[in-house]
Automatic annotation (TrEMBL):
The purine nucleoside phosphorylases catalyze the phosphorolytic breakdown of the N-glycosidic bond in the beta-(deoxy)ribonucleoside molecules, with the formation of the corresponding free purine bases and pentose-1-phosphate. One of its GO terms (molecular function) is purine-nucleoside phosphorylase activity. InterPro entries: Nucleoside_phosphorylase_d, Nucleoside_phosphorylase_sf, Pur_Nuc_Pase_Ino/Guo-sp, Purine_phosphorylase. Residues 23-269 form the Nucleoside phosphorylase domain. It comes from the Bacteria. GO terms for biological process: nucleoside metabolic process. Its EC number is 2.4.2.1. Keywords: Glycosyltransferase, Transferase. The lineage of its organism: Bacteria, Pseudomonadati, Bacteroidota, Flavobacteriia, Flavobacteriales. Pathway: Purine metabolism; purine nucleoside salvage. Pfam families: PNP_UDP_1. This is Purine nucleoside phosphorylase. PANTHER family: METHYLTHIOADENOSINE/PURINE NUCLEOSIDE PHOSPHORYLASE, PURINE NUCLEOSIDE PHOSPHORYLASE-RELATED. SUPFAM superfamilies: Purine and uridine phosphorylases (SSF53167). It comes from Flagellimonas allohymeniacidonis.
């Protein structure tokens, strides 16, 4: 990855009318409904943006959408990239560098995750307070990383405290149950065994997924304040583990998403 590649991506998007967005938003698996809230949308499909990877998962549609939500200019990733699709960490996080280059000042991230904390239920939303990286690598581990920012990035508080407090207050006001906890990111695409769920619980994880952490690491390198929420789509009880139903996971994500959209819209108004 080079600065020149990022500049070419930015040049294409600027010509399309992607002008000074304030907030970047990444939508997770089954969480695409937010795009219907975008006013005056301009779309750019990933396969048209120079150097962008292509989305391969069927429930990720693969486009960058620019427009207005709650009176603020936003750029939304509808479809993200995962290690399990065969991408590397630089592919996965390339869009974060492009959105930062467009001018975003804050980043919102959503994902679908499994609840390891058995006090949490499917259909809940979890505000991510911290994470554990079990993906076996880093999006900062490449030779010319210093062209893009510091090599040794502080991760003592990767998720912005101020925005977290705002989200908690919004959830309380709107009557939305909001859990808080630690997200662990694994490679996938296979789901966990009973023994693996037990291990993740011992490690201190409240929810498990296959995304988000690489993007958060790069956002921290770029000193981009970030907020992230997990829509909990299944309960990972190793003593009562049922075979996975991907269709049910997508349905639960879809049913819970309006609450997440409400949180994001209200937060956009307030920041």
């Amino acid at each position: 990855m080079t600065k020149k590649q990022v500049e070419e991506s930015l040049e294409y998007l600027n010509k399309r009318g992607f002008e000074s967005p304030e907030i970047g938003i990444i939508l997770g698996t089954g969480l695409g409904q937010l795009v219907s809230e975008i006013e005056n949308p301009i779309e750019a499909h990933y396969n048209h943006i120079p150097y962008f990877p292509l989305a391969t998962v069927e429930f990720h549609s693969g486009k960058l959408i620019y427009g207005t939500i709650s009176g603020k200019k936003v750029v939304v990733m509808q479809g993200r990239f995962h290690l399990y699709e065969g991408y590397d960490f630089l592919d996965i996080t390339y869009p974060i560098r492009v959105m930062h280059g467009l001018g975003i000042k804050k980043l919102f991230v959503s994902n679908a995750a499994g609840a390891i904390n058995l006090d949490f239920k499917k259909g809940d939303i979890m505000l991510i307070e911290d994470h554990i990286n079990l993906q076996g690598g880093s999006p900062l581990a490449f030779k010319n990383v210093v062209e893009f920012g510091d090599r040794f990035v502080d991760m003592s508080e990767p998720y912005d405290l101020e925005m977290r407090k705002k989200v908690e207050a919004i959830a309380q006001k709107e009557g939305i149950t909001l859990q808080k906890g630690v997200y662990v990111s694994v490679v996938g695409p296979q789901l966990e065994t009973k023994a693996e769920y037990r291990m993740l619980k011992i490690l201190g994880a409240d929810a498990v997924g296959m995304s988000t952490v690489p993007e958060v690491i790069v956002a921290n390198q770029l000193r981009l304040p970030i907020i992230a929420v997990s829509v909990l789509t299944d309960e990972c009880d190793p003593d009562n583990l049922q075979p996975i139903n991907i269709q049910e996971i997508i349905e639960i994500a879809g049913k819970t998403e309006p609450k997440m959209i409400q949180l994001f819209k209200e937060l956009i108004k307030e920041i």
